[in-house]
Amino acid sequence: MIAREEIETIITAFPDLYGRLIGKRIAGPFFVEEVIEHGVHVCDYVLTADMEMDPVPGYRFASWEQGYGDIHCRPDWNSLRLATWLDKTAIVFCDVYDEDAGDLVEIAPRTVLKRQMERAKDLGFLPMGGAELEMFIFQETYESARQKGFQNLQPFGGYIEDYHILQGTREEPLIGAIRRHLDRSGVPVEFSKGEWGAGQHEINVRYADFLEMSDRSIIFKQVCKEVAMQQSLAVTFMAKWHENAAGNSLHIHSSLWDQDGRSLFAGNGKLPGLPTGASDLFRWYLGGLMAHAREVSLFFAPTVNSYKRYQAGSFAPTSIAWAYDNRTAGFRIVGHGDSLRVECRIPGADANPYLAFAATLAAGLDGIQNQTEPPPAFDGDVYAASELPRVPASLNEAIREFESSTFVRRVFGDQVTDHYLHFARTEQRKFDETVTTWERARFFERI
């Protein structure tokens, strides 16, 4: 395709700590002559930078003292696909290697997930998952939103549009284009629908193994933003863009399969509260998720904004509980037989998918290895329950849970644990140092 000039540009990219795509646009001939064999190089500071690309001090991985050298990015050819929303462009995800040692960079989000996938493979499991990502659409451009100071933004819709076909028709020029480009770019779409907010929408893509599903989620977010820009619109995946609006979720559906394509969750075992049969593996996997949900919440909710989504009556969970087909629970069990799976409703759309899937898998595998029994199923409105363990109420609380967890250090290692603790503490510190519009409105005159 490059020789026929059907492809002129190849994007070589990988996710940073936030899940943003970082990389280079490579001219087609140079890609063939050099990159296929040798890969590309990127400054290592990108795996320590914050949202503003500030080289944050205090990381062991990279620093001014170490000179901010290069990391080596090698294409994962399984991820190569057309980027049809761009002209004559393809995209390939890269794995990140240490320039000197030649080893995978352990703190890179894609590596973090790959290590947990290796654990699953060693146990004979293939983790399969789906990701339900929600977003808000705005009758703004990103430039106009910045000029307004991100105040008084106009959503694309005047009422809650959950399942509404009429409002969906208004948004179809954007949503339809996104669906088409996803399909044509190797991300098969199931459906789209309005969500529980004005201008809020969801597009579901087909399930896949955890790594491919994470890649698809990143492509999904990129396509949504870039197609919106092409139509002079904007979308956001903030967990909570406004205090009076619904939150944006990343619901993770997960199950384990064997190498022959058989579900390992299906079975004849009885579990009170579950109206279908299930295997021991399913029960223990669920037990691991329940046991470790608070400890890994940093990978489900990585920003200060994440925790504003957890509000009663909002379809976002507030407690660690499981129930069958109950959207008030943090863990909703759905399906039966081969379709039996766990839906984790805790992650927000601001989560890095690789880290969220890695946390899910690590917790579930630990439950299986230790034959962890889940607590009893909850019957009723989880929001009304006061005796259940709660999801962390703040980033600070999630940091404390992550830091004190022997499980986290055991499954992710000291290097990954310390790196993401520093990342989270930096996010919290940057917020704590900021004077907000709320503070000025509340105190400027009256204090």
The assigned structural class equals alpha+beta
**Helix share of residues?**
25-40%
* Count of helix runs: 11
Distance from N terminus to C terminus (CA atoms, Å) equals 66 Å
Count of distinct structural domains: 2
Q: Characterize the overall form.
A: globular
Helix and strand run? EEHEEEEHEHHEEEHEEHHEEEHHHH
CATH superfamily of the largest domain: Glutamine synthetase/guanido kinase, catalytic domain
CATH top level assignment of the largest domain: Alpha Beta
Strand content: 15-25%
Q: Give the overall pLDDT as a whole number.
A: 97
CATH topology of the largest domain: Creatine Kinase, Chain A, domain 2
Low-pLDDT windows of residues: none
CATH architecture classification name of the largest domain? 2-Layer Sandwich
Number of strands: 15
Explain the overall architecture.
- Helices cover 34% and strands 19% of the residues.
- Strand 5 (81-82) and strand 6 form a beta hairpin.
- It is globular, with a radius of gyration of 22 Å.
- Helix 4 packs across helix 5 (210-230) and helix 5 (210-230) packs antiparallel against helix 8 (353-369).
- Strands 7, 8, 9, 10, 11, 12, 13, 14 and 15 form a 9-stranded mixed sheet that branches. Strands 1, 2, 3, 4, 5 and 6 form a 6-stranded mixed sheet that branches.
- The protein starts with 8 loop residues before the first strand and ends with a helix.
- It is an alpha+beta fold and 447 residues long.
- It folds into 2 domains: 9-105, Glutamine synthetase, N-terminal domain (Ubiquitin-like (UB roll), Roll), CATH 3.10.20; 116-437, Creatine Kinase, Chain A, domain 2.
- The model has no long low-confidence stretch (mean pLDDT 97).
